[in-house]
Write a structure and sequence with these properties.
2 domains; Alpha-Beta Plaits; 4 helices; single chain; alpha+beta; 8 strands; three-stranded antiparallel sheet; about 35% helix; about 250 residues
């Protein structure tokens, strides 16, 4: 009797397995490997580019102070005094308070290698305080650099000057119009060659690029300011817009 029960159970399990496998075969079925193309895959696709030349109307200075002393307190005091003189010079030169922003502040120990002991020894502490300054009258940039150089003395550090445009929006609009006109001209040319009738745009994508000019400067302790005054020329920069446009074919 026991063997008969086990044998019957085995038959039932086999039947269940066959049923499950058969069910899986009926569910899986064939898969369609072809993916229909969307409407964006058809038509005439072109890229148009528009460029506008701009004279920078904003100079951004990266400047600050660096002081080194035997103690943190002394280094901080010297750096704070020098920075206060620089900030006063900036305000006296017409720079607004909201155009001055702290960029970087650090305090760290300075060490040197002692050959006799084979170890590093503490030599003091260095305090660095850097700010970014927006100069909205680019023509005054050179005079402002001279003013902060006189105020900060050997503590002054100037990293770079970025020449840019305060509001590139109107130039981007002009470049966008040129880019769309360029795209339409190219699409019409393709349609004429292929003996097709150009339709309306069905897809538009934009990429804009604004080139800024950065002048790297190294102004450190022991380097005197030029006797004739610093001269900064804004030159020109460009605002570029690239459009990817798809046109239907009528």
């Amino acid at each position: 009797m026991k063997k008969r029960i086990l044998y019957t159970t085995g038959i039932i399990l086999i039947a269940l397995i066959v049923t499950v496998i058969s069910g899986c075969d009926s569910i899986t079925g064939p898969v369609d490997s072809e993916v229909p193309l969307g409407s964006q895959q058809t038509g005439i696709w072109v890229t148009g580019e528009g460029e506008v030349t701009v004279v920078p109307d904003l100079a951004i200075l990266s400047l600050g102070v660096e002081a080194q002393a035997d103690t943190v307190t002394q280094a901080q005091s010297e750096a704070t005094t020098a920075m206060n003189y620089i900030l006063a010079a900036l305000r006296n030169s017409g720079v607004e308070e909201n155009d001055i922003q702290t960029q970087y502040y650090s305090i760290y120990p300075t060490r040197r290698w002692d050959e006799s002991t084979g170890e590093e020894e503490l030599t003091g502490y260095r305090v660095t305080n850097m700010v970014t300054v927006k100069v909205r009258e680019v023509a005054n940039t050179g005079a402002i650099i001279d003013a902060v150089a006189a105020a900060g003395g050997n503590y002054l550090r100037i990293n770079n000057i970025e020449l840019t445009v305060d509001d590139p929006t109107p130039y981007q609009k002009e470049a966008r119009e040129k880019a769309l006109a360029d795209a339409e001209e190219k699409a019409q040319h393709i349609a004429d060659i292929a003996d097709l009738k150009l339709g309306t745009p069905t897809y538009v994508s934009e990429t804009s690029r604004y080139n800024t000019y950065t002048l790297d400067m190294i102004y450190e302790s022991g380097i005197p300011a030029p006797e004739t005054g610093s001269s900064i020329s804004p030159g020109e920069t460009t605002v570029t817009v690239t459009m990817l446009v798809a046109y239907s074919i009528d």
